[in-house]
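Re: the pair you flagged

First of the two:
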Amino acid sequence: MAILGRIRARGILLIVVVGLAMLAFIIGDFLNSGATFFHSMNSNVASVNGKKVDAMKYQAAIEQLTDVYKIEYGRNDVNEDMMAQIRTQVWESTISEMLLEEEADKLGLTVTDAELSDHIIGNNVHPIIMQRRAFADQSGRFNKQVLINFLSNLEQAGDNDQMAQAKSYYMFWENMVRTDLLQSKYLALLSKAVVANSLEAKAAYDARLTSNDVEYVLYPYYQLADSTFSVADSEIKERYKKQLKSYAQEPYRSVAYVRYEKQPSQADFQEAEKFINNLKAEFDTTSNVAELVTYNSDVPYLGTNYSETTIPADLKDFAFNGKVGDVTPVTLVGDIYRTARIMQTGIMSPDSVKLAHIYLAQVDSVRADSIMTAVKKGADWGELAKQYSADTQSAANNGELGWFEENSLDGEIGEQAFTLPEKQMFLFNNGQGLQIIRIQERTPLRQKVKVAILERKVAPSSRTIADTYNEAKKLAAASKTTEQFNEEAQKAGKSVLPAVNVVQGSEKVGNLRQSRPVVRWAFQAKEGEVSDVFECDDVIVVATLVKASDEDHRALDDVKDELRTEIIRDKKADKMIAEINGKSVEQVAQMLNAEIDTVENVNAASYYFGGAGMEPAVIGKASTLKQDETSAPVKGEKGVYVLHDIAQHENAVAPFDAKTEINQINMRTMYALPQQAIETLKQKAEIEDKRLKLY
């Protein structure tokens, strides 16, 4: 279908709109329709404040976003890494969307059809729509008429798979706009509750009025040995109880695993070398190099013109010192066997050209010739572009299309654009209209060569992979417990790698790509169990479950050492403060045989305290010292400080303006509000994650 084909032709990297406005469709049509085998299983993938998310509908949301990715990228499939990203986005968006809808319902917030229409085809087109290249004209800029034509074609066309995909694609973005508008209303209402007042404005202003230069001495915690302080179990339990909220966690698994790389064997190297050598004689002499390379090389022949900076480093001397027809011997570069042949030398071409065009909506050769003649006789190109070009957006900018690198333009356009001189024009018929293309500028000419490269990457054969798999299988078969797993791995000379805090939503274990199946296994296994063999991308893995925790908070035993360290640090601080209380900076420095350091221009807005780094409590005290005042000991992150003010500065600031200060504070608040709002809703919500049932 022409519409869908145009979408694919203009595919670009998906601009993911992060946050609450990401996937409105999830809670829309997909969460309220359909039935599959998931229903017969009574399976739900999540529960948010008691509202269930049906697994079938959740899977439909994943498939929907997958289709959108395909269209935006202009490809027919997506790899597993991209699928992991899609699944994560669908999950985060599902939760955020449900929480937003729940809050909006309580507050009576809605988005009307009239509002939505205004932000799709009205006077206030939403950026989400404007960023879609499917709705752009020839210049790549958003054009409302293109969108209207797109919608009109959707309405008039019959039902088929491609049309259904195009409609779904449009509805995806329409629903994203709807959700973003709802989010904006919710945040606008919420912002009224966090607006700054005049007292906050005056405090923020006063904090910038003065800054202090202070000298200080640090009594570092490490100077007192931990062994001189005792900590009772009751103290640890009391602090654990007090800080319990900070130890909240998701159910997690800790695993250990051994990885077997799918690496080519010596036989695989020999096979790849033989493959290239068998083609070498033909490559050296054939008159159809392009066909031979395209059909046999890992990289097809593209007729690329190489400069000294773009040609592979190992071929530079050969290419720029040889003659046409010269061929290199077969060499191994990393894991690639390669031979190259010089096809053309003495090429002088720019690296980039700046192009402009006048686009005639119909193939009108007579008009095109008259325009080109007028330009040659001195007519203003920019004015002619504005008058005749059907590409209205580029026409408004004198027909400018921008800069293009060599090899980024294919076929006839690329050939002429990089061989013709500046200000030269040529015609290109794209089948729908006629382009008068003009070379506005180009970079200096550089010497280049055309080189054909025949190469073969050494990859592990199926036999090699089978041998590696069998080696991993032996480890799995010989290990029934974690202890045996560790012993057998050591015997085999394999490293056991840890992966802690693997949660249900984890897409991978450790740094293993495409290891979601290992996550699923870990949540179904028992502690001490050893897995069968997993294939994770180009790695074969055997794992063991070291620890399983389904508690809502980290156990006391897990944080006991952290708590003991905190308590000891507090006891050190108390002892240090008692030792140096009432002493001057010089006295403390003499007592500790320490240096006195200086920090200049400290105020409440400071982020670092000189070389001491992030010390918020110390900065707070330093910024409030009066002239020549010495502070009491201050408990910091690295130790206990004594400060002395040595100078105060009046900073050059504009007169106080309450309105300006309030606006600045509100802007900072609004910047962080969207993320803070949804995170707060998540923390208060009852969210049950059952994704392991689905994937």
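Second of the two:
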Amino acid sequence: MTYLLFMKRIDELDTQKMRDKEKGHIQNYTSIFDGTIDLPNFKDPIPKETLRWSAMEGMKDDEMLYHLQQKVFPFIKQLGGENSFFTKHMDNAVFLIPKPSLMRDAYRTINEIYSEIDREISEGTKDGSQDSRALLNDIQGDVYEHLLDELKNAGKNGQFRTRTHIVQLVVELVFADISDKNVFLDENFRIADPACGSTTFLLGAFKYILTQFTSDKYIKPSDDNFMIGTTGDLLPANGHKKLEEDTFFGYDIDPTMVRIGLMNMLMHGITQPHIDYKDTLSKNYNEEARYKAVFANPPFTGSIDKEDINDNLSLKKATNKTELLFIERIHKMLTEDGTAGIIIPQGVLFGSGKAFVETRKLMIEQAELKAVVTMPSGVFKPYAGVATAILIFTKGRSTENVWFYEMKSDGYTLDDKRNPDHANSDLQDIIARFKTRNPQTDTDRTGSVQKCFFVPKAEIVENNYDLSLNKYKQQIYEEVTYIPPKDILAKLKTLEDEIQNDLAELQSIFQ
């Protein structure tokens, strides 16, 4: 189904770009359906125009299935050119719809989805508050990501997508101290995810940057009150090219997830996604000091064969736990002054083993650990029940104080249903307090005034680099007034007398 949605999407994208070219909005664009293509099993070249999704309208069921299997699918596997990441990783992809009737049902369903998308766009652009092209990108991307969630719920392919509102929170925290939006367009500004999965973190960063270059009239709050605007109408001439071709880089060890990630990026308008099949903890990956921002929700409680661990990772001697090794890998990937946002299991914060201590020491002594945001255990239900935390650190600076925040609610119930509970959400409070954090005033550790406080580095070092919030939070014990024992005994005696009197009365009735 993901391949079919992608086929429809590239037809829509190409049609939109050809319209933009006709209107003079873009220059030098050549349709991907221009010309012909040589395909196996066909003597004559195939006109690419016949490979559009829209070209299948009116085909019989068996003709449509044959057309997709033998022509369209081989064509999309070559998109991006012979040396592109997309072509490289689509090489072994297989089209598995076996029956013409199923193909017809899928074709009809996807067209119905796009009819609904057209209706949403028509409604959303009536008052001029939204741009139709940006809205199309958003909705189509949302449809694709919803499908990923459905696949995950069904237990297929092992897709695990970090929830969008958590992604947006981490992205906001990582970029909170960037005051000049033009920094994002610097030729050396690159963003990576060393365990990217379906690329939700990279897309979250992409949407954040687009929002910074979007006019206020196109910016709207999400359900979680994040301000989102993906028009990018204020981007300079080279802005789109920079973001779409040389900003976002992702790696994963699952070939299926690499293909899904590539298609997900393309569905959101990243024309040349750099998503590659690579184990970033292994000896085959040696990139260092290249990225200004790194995001990750790496595998929890995983392990790797010590023989495969990159020799440049000093933690190799002490551990093969991936949740620890990824922290060092991310630190190495960052440039000086580069910032990371990582989701980790809370055990990393207080583990007493040598590797745990050394990992925390790395973030304290060789970086500025800006924030530790603890999250309740239900945030990743129903897929994982482990309590997690967000770490924000910047390489090349020194830690003086660490800001802690105890998240009580992410805006959803903490059971398996995860129903909306936005009234109790801490997300926007976290962002607001992080942006105005002050070690001189954020000193109350009781939680009675606010849910955040600073802890000096010296205190953390003294506690073996322990980063668990409860280690430093001050518990308030209210005095409880108890009834004096003699009064309790007197009350018991009165009750006993009443019981005896009632029993005597019952006995007299039955005599």
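Residues 153-159 have pLDDT under 50 and may be disordered.

-B.
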